[in-house]
Every structure is written in C-alpha cells, then in structure tokens.
Amino acid sequence: MPMKDSCQTSMADVGTWARKLGPYRQPNSTRGVLELAITMMPFASAWFLMFVTLHFGYFWLYALLVLPAAGLLVRLFMIQHDCGHGSFFPNRTGNDWVGRVIGVLTLMPYDHWRRGHAIHHATAGNLDNRGVGDVDTLTVAEYVARSAWGRFRYRLYRHPAVMFGLGPVYLFVLQSRLPIGFMRKGWTPWVSTMATNLAVAAFAGLMIWTIGFVPFLLIHLPIVLVGAAIGVWLFYIQHQFEDTHWVRNQGWNAHEMALRGSSYYDLPKVLNWFTANIGVHHVHHLSSRIPYYRLQEVLRDFPELRKRGRLTLLQSLGCVRLALWDESSQRLISFKELRRAATASYRMAA
C-alpha cells in the first residue's frame, strides 16, 4: 500500500492549485468530436462483430469481444461524466445532449446522475455529509455500535461479490430506473429518469425488432454488466484506499480533500485510454472542469502531482479488504484489523 504523503507540508497551500490549473479548463470542440468518434465507432463495430460471431457460431470470438466492448462502454460513460461537468464541449447544449444520448447506452439518466455527482464532489471525504454518490463507508465507532444484524448487512455490502458483482447490476439496471434519493427534489430527476427509460425501451425495441430478443440480450447485457462492474471498481478505488482522508464538517476543504482523499490510479497507457484518464482523480477533484483529454498534460507539467495518492494496478487489488474508517489512526482498515485490535485490547484488559 502507498505510504503517507511526504509532500504534504510543501504543498500545504492546496487552494493555489485551482489557480494553477485554470489554463487547462478550456474544452476544445474539435477534440471533443474526435474523442467521441474514436469511441463510438469502435463500440458500434464491436457490437456488430459480436452479433456476427453469434450468428455464425464463433462463440469463443464472441466471448473475447465482450471485454473490449465493455471497455468502450466505460469510455463512453466517462465522456458522459465529462459532459456532466461541462468539460467535454465548450457549450452546455452540446454537453447535455451528448450526455443524454450516451445515457441510453449506459442506462444512466444523465440529468439525474449529474445532480447526484455534483453532490459527491461537494461532499467527498466529509464524514458528516455521506450518502449521495459515495461508496457507503462506516467509521470503526459506527460499525461497533451497530447490532449484529447491522454489522452483518454492512459486511455483506462490502463483500467483493456484492460490491463488484450484484452492486453494479442493481445500480445501473435497477436503481437508475427511478430517481432514488431524489424522489421529492422536483421534476428534473423524474423527467431525466423517465425520458431515459423511454429512450432505452425504444433502443431495445428497435434492436430486438432488427436482430431478435435473444441475440440482443446476449450482446448488450454482458457489455453493460461487465462495463458496470469496471465502472464501480474505478469509482471505488478513487476514494477507498488506505491513506485516503476523511474529516468532520468543520475541517473539510474541497481542495485538500482532492489532494489527500482522491487517488492517482497509475494505470498502463491502454487502460488509461479505455478509462479516459479517470485514474488521475485527484486532479479531477481539484478542477472538475478540466477535460479528461487534458489530465495527462497536468501530470506532465506538474510532476509533483504524480506522488499524491499513487496506486498501481497491483497495489489497488489490496484495497478490496479495506472497509472501515479508523478516526484514531486516520486511515481505512479491514475487518481483520479491527478484530485483531479488539483481541489485543481484550488480552491487555485481562
């Protein structure tokens, strides 16, 4: 796991980063169109090739195509994500309508998701404002204070099979069909969700009419489910690592939480492409208006940011065991570590 950041003192004035990163915030329409084209066209091609391989019985090739197709869907979701921040195209209309159309493929209602995600950026790392757009995280004290049933439910929620298996299915396929958490927040969440549902039904109906019900399910459903699992993993690893940072409301600062509470997921170049540089998450939280296609420029021009919250692909696998925020040690710990600490305390008391 990464060590505590040694650069903390030299970069104490974290608010200056908003000014330093200002020149990178301007999107480019031509670049946006190009990024959309080199993602959408390969995705459509992969989708069509999956149909062809199924039709002619090349099931091994069909299976091989699922992962790259899902990776391209993840990249489309990251474009939708940038549109939600107003950072993909220079104008809001272009961002909003591209985001809404992509939402039909990702099954994520754009306007509803954008509102929830804005809350995530405004509260990430705030122990007193958890619950919207976050991976549910309990403190050690909160977990210990729960009943046996409550602790079991939290452990079940945190199990990898639920977090990265059942969870993504529930989030993208079921929860996103209703404005959960925003039922009484006005008409926008409802219009966004219901309009997306109608568009998804129209898209599915057209494809089923064209190629049949079973082929459509065998193609699009695996792509969505694998893509959703990858997306949830990426969101998890962006804030759920040992040396992340959580504070109470009075000590919360957006820029400090960006640098100390968000990871730099240092992925191989090909995975950076498929994930649209979302691994450069600390920079994204410092300035969410920076287009994803400029995040690598920031790392190039400010190499000191490469040292902040860095996780490699191998290191990130160890983060799965982390589940509880220990306010005393200021780090995420595992259930095993909590049991070990409880056992040691019992032996000392005896």
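(the above was protein one; protein two follows)
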Amino acid sequence: MSTPAVAPLLLHVVGARPNFPKAAPVLAALREHPVRQLLVHTGQHYDAQLSEVFFDELGLPRPDVDLGVGSGSHATQTAAVMVALEQVFAEHRPSMVVVYGDVNSTVAAALVAAKLHIPVAHVEAGLRSGDRTMPEEVNRLVTDRISDLLLATSADAVAHLHREGVDPATVHLVGNPMIDTVLRHVHQLDPARIATLRGVLEQTDPRYVAATVHRPGNVDDPDDTRPLVAALHAVADQVPVVLPLHPRGRAGLTRAGLLEHGGITVLEPLGYLDFLSLVQGAAAVVTDSGGVQEETTALGVPCLTLRPSTERPVTITEGTNRLVTRERLADEVSRVLADGRPAPGSTPVPPLWDGHAGPRIAEVLARALGVG
C-alpha cells in the first residue's frame, strides 16, 4: 500500500497591521484546498491594538510562530526579521512563502525565501507610487522583482508589472483581499457607538473628520510636522477632528502643538472594528495611509490623502479618494462638508473588489502547487 503524499506547506508571513486584513481571507479560502498552512507573525507591530486585536476580530488563527522582533530602524528591523525567518524556513521547508503588502517584514521574507530557493507569492503586487523616498516603494519593487507569483489588486498594478518586464504568466489579477475583510465585517460596524464612546458626538454638530498620519514625509521632520499640525488645526476650526495616533510620529506631532486645539481629539490606536466604525461615521477621512484609501473607497467615505502621489490611483479613478496638499487641506474639507456624504452605493468601486479575492488567490496558489 502506497504512502499518501504529504500536502504542500504554504507559509504565510505577516508582521504589521496592514497585513492582517489581507491575509485573513486568503488563509480562510485555502482551508478548502488540500494544503497545509503555517502562519508566522514577525512582531514588527507588537502593540496589542496594532497587532493582537486583529487575530481576535478577524478570526485569524493564532500564529504558529511569533518572532517578536519589535521596532527599530529599517535596517535593524529588516535584518532581525531575516535572521529569524531563515531559521523558520530551514526548519519547516515550506513549498511556498506568501507575503503581503509592502512592510519591512514583506521584503525580508521574500529575500530569505529567494535565497533558499523557496517560491514566493506576493499578495498586492505591482502597486507603484513612483516615489522612492517612501520605504514602502523600495519594499514593493524589491519584493516583486524576486517573487514567483504576483497577485495584483487592480489593472494599473498589472500594467506596472508588465512595463517592468515581468513574465505575464506569473501575474494574476485577483482583486483586493483587504476589501473581502471590510465587506465581511461591515454589518458589525457601528459609527454611533464608537463616536459616542470617544466623545465625538458631544458637540452640537455630530459631524467629524477622522484622521491618520504616520508617513515619514509628514511626521519625521519638524519642518513637515509644523505645517501639518497647522493644517489639522485649520480643519478643526471647521469640524471636530478625531485622530487615532500611530506611535510613529507621536512625539514630534505633540511637540509641534497638535494637542493645543480643543477641536482635536487624539486617541490611542484602535482595533480593526473600532477604526472602521470611526471611518464609516466620518464626514471625511484625512490620511496618509495606503490601506485607508482602499477602505474608504469600499465604504463610500470621502478621503483626502496628504501625499503628493499614491500607489493606489484606482482609489481616485474608481473610488472616493483625492490627493491634497497641507496648504489646500482645510479648503478641501470645507468643500466635502458642503457637498455632504454621498448616498450609500453611489460611489464607484474598482473591478474585483467584490469580497471574493481570497478564493481567487487560493485558487492561484493551489494551482501553482499542483493541487488546484
């Protein structure tokens, strides 16, 4: 009697808040295929609200391996993840490594796997801002160059990969798994509850603007933080601003006077459902986050992105997002407030952002492993 073949092992690497809602639908969909799965959390984000809460709220399995690398400079953090992952990959010898997004853990895992001759699949491949001063842009370029399967969220991402000479047979347009997670949990969102909980609705006007800022170009240099804070104060002159503040940049923004305006409420980082509830109830969102541009598009919430470029232009052409400067921010918020929130379902959503990206990704991975 022959011994049954061992099912191929897919090793998923996550490490920071943006990774978790992308990985959740992929892990779930792969349970319908004859594969084994191992989830490795690098610990790049180690704060409970930036990491642990996601496993509870999104139904993610607890990590099989938690590396706990913590914070540090880009080089220190990436190197620590690489050293730790090399041992994990050598021990488990996965059939394929799946990486998500563009954080330091993503590029670290891809580099280690490539050097060990383990195939790499990159979920959210092909996004490009054209701005190499962004660490994430460098991570995206390097990861895509050494990945064997490139799983793209939008047609513009596919076009970038083709222009860069990537073999078309390795590129798959699958949609956006982060939107799967938004749509799966949208019925659990309760803007009134979260707004009341945070004291936002104590004002006569129940409208508010939700904000997130953490990019180096906005929070690292005092010459950037001062005009950013001035712009947020000008917004708060019109409408309350609620800002769950990322640990990155907290000290600099505080020194620049962020808390000196009574219309600004600064919160600790929120869990996934609390944050999306805050977003859904907002008159507008001001952000420099890539993922928030996508989430606001899915929820139909006006989004003003404080960056000169975006790797997610589809959220502008097929969504609710627009790029703004600090100098124009207050005027743009005023215009959004005058226009009011669009009617539910009236804003465009990119193709394949339909809640079924996870199963499409699982099909591609299973076929690549010969079990699809």
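Reviewer note on protein two: The chain has a mean pLDDT of 92.
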